[in-house]
Amino acid sequence: MIDFELTPEQQEAIKIAHEFSKEQFRPVSRYYDEHEHESPQELIDKTWEKRYEGTLALGLDVTAALRIEELCWGDAGLFLCIPGPALGGAAVFSSGTKEQLGRFLGSFNEGGPKWGAMAMTEPHAGSDTAAISATAVRDGDEWVLNGEKIFVTMGKRALEDSDGFVVVWATVDKSAGRAGMKSFVVLAGTPGMRIEKLEKKLGIRASDTATIVFDNCRIPFDNILGSPEVKKTETKGFRGAMATFDATRPIIAAQAIGVGRAALDFVKETLENKGIRIRYGTPRQKLTALERDIMEMEANYEAAKLLTLRALWMMSQAQPNSLESSMAKTKAGLAVTKITQKAVEIMGPLGYSRKHLLEKWMRDGKINDIFEGTGQINMLVTARRVLNYSRDQLK
Amino acid sequence: MISFSPTEEQQMIVSMVKQFASDEIRKIYRECDESSEIPDSVVDTAWRMGLISNNIPEEYGGFGGEHSAITGSLIAEELAWGDLSMAIHILCPALFSYPILEMGTDTQRKKYLPLFCDEQYKVATAALIEPHFGFDPCSLSTIAQLEGNEYVLNGEKCYVPLATEADFLLVYAAENSNSQGFIIEKDTKGLEISERENNMGIKALATYELSLKNCRVPKENRLGGPDGCDFHRILNCSRVALSAMAVGVAKAAFEYSRDYAKERVAFGEPIASRQTIAFMLAEMAIEIDATRLMTWEAAWKLDREEEATKEASLVKGYADDMAIMVTDRAVQILGGHGYVREHPVELWLRNGRGFVTFDGMAIV
Hints:
The complex is a heterodimer.
Chain A: H1 8-34, H2 41-49, H3 62-74, H4 76-81, H5 86-95, H6 98-105, E1 116-119, E2 135-139, E3 142-153, H7 155-159, E4 165-171, E5 181-187, E6 193-198, E7 209-220, E8 224-225, H8 236-273, H9 289-316, H10 322-347, H11 349-352, H12 358-365, H13 375-387
Helix pairs in contact in A: 1-3, 3-8, 5-8, 8-9, 8-10, 8-12, 9-10, 10-12, 10-13
Chain B: H1 8-35, H2 40-47, H3 69-82, H4 84-103, H5 106-112, E1 124-127, E2 143-147, E3 150-161, E4 168-175, E5 178-185, E6 191-196, E7 207-218, H6 231-263, E8 265-266, E9 269-270, H7 275-303, H8 309-334, H9 336-339, H10 345-353
Parallel strand pairs in B: 1-4
Antiparallel strand pairs in B: 2-3, 3-7, 4-5, 6-7, 8-9
């Protein structure tokens, strides 16, 4: 049955996340925007304390998306600081064995706050993930990793500030192309791995974006996710990476939606205080330009949200959702960019001033059109799926 | 709990309607557009699927199925995928029967609903749009005034589907500035139906202008009697139906241009293997899906009897834009071939352009 009703549990999750976001994120939002790379320790401890309540624990389903929307409504950068296995967890989840799931995630909630991260991008390989040049060479019972990874979201917190881990994509056989791509779990504290640099960014400044260098970094053999074998006709490892994206792209879309709604709510609240009502159902030619803008923003928000929920719902139904998650990510990235930029325009001096958070949301929101695949890469993935084309047929 | 899967029953109806659209409508739609005619046979075949009578309670002779806006949206999309003119024609009796079903008095329901449960297609229609700039369904220029036991209606309407054939019309008019519906039987004095309209699109569908000159109807003919009707709900049901149809038209245009782009070779490759074309198609697919989901959400609200003006009007506006974006791109992807009438994309562009004008011409 086609249904849009939230379960009582989902309503409760939204409520709790919203309150948390409003009370814990919003008051310090500007501070951590202006104090890049300073750790919101108090917040981290607080969220960590609450991890067993389940309400802040994240996941990869509809409920998670609803919760993430609320948290990113508060602050998208601080949201990323919430301890948890994050994208690294998603990678283990989608291509690890049961034993690995237990080993890497089983005790994640024990001890101090921990983060997981995913290292894919390299200085010369961004969206073209098949071109990565980091290497993993087998040496007896170990793999030896070498290479440089950039733009690792929460890399520093995962590896330096906690006992977390990072999932690193590397090739075990360059001549095998995509078939040689494998992912490896590297635990914090492993010798031969160091954080080289933290990026200074346009937005989401509370989160760290790290460069990690692997210099003869040795990890146990069974830290490889999926099969170590390279069959040139098989691109399982690479497909593992893509499967991870199917799960994570709608999650990024949910983050985008949260930021978009923050901007939309701010504009609507301001208008309401000014006594300006949006006349839904009024014919177009009678609407003001402002009303048209607001309605377009709202419709785009709704469109992005429904595409996102559908992608996650399909995943929970064990339906292939590669097309739908790329659609959701493309639309949400575009929508948040459009909504926040339009909001800044509409609000005039209030929009551009750092007195309000709106300008920050415009900066924060933009990341969603970039990470986990730029809008263009997601459009490309969508196009390939829509056309039933391979990478060679549509470059 | 959130779900995007139609019920089994809905899936059965959808596959039946889809089959019909593909086997029957798609065979003749181009011809119908050229000749401005829809053969009775296709309408009769559609009628026998019971798309409308299925929703009418057994006590009035219907099948007593649940009247659902979601089901209505699914049907509307499939029919419009076949052809918009035929979709509106086939569902035209619903413009009259659904408001009676939902909001009519007992007497009105008893009198009119059984007529739509016959084996024979029963023509009835509704008149909402008015032929002047600044038309606003909530501020109609057509006026209904109570005089004794009669309402006197004055005004002009346009885009009234099948007005000459219809035995009954539901005419919307302002009564003390509130839009209300009035049942007018054909041949009522003062009801004057003009020549058939000639429009840019939906050419196969017969639509008319009509004027009401001191047209008198009994007081009892006010939809819903003394309580009147929930006009906003009627409008919202129409917005949802038209949005669903916009999705159907857009889907047709998308599929055709996608297939063409994969076949048409330029510079040694199918044009679909160029990002310029591929990205256009990807965006078309995204917006079609997004609009469909928003349509379902608004329909879901209607099914729960909740206030849905915001959702319905947002999706209608979105669907209007989406329809023109998608159908225009479909023409563009075919280039010069898209402009000639050998291919159907120009027809879909003309039809797609109509949604922003249409109001109250279909209902779920």
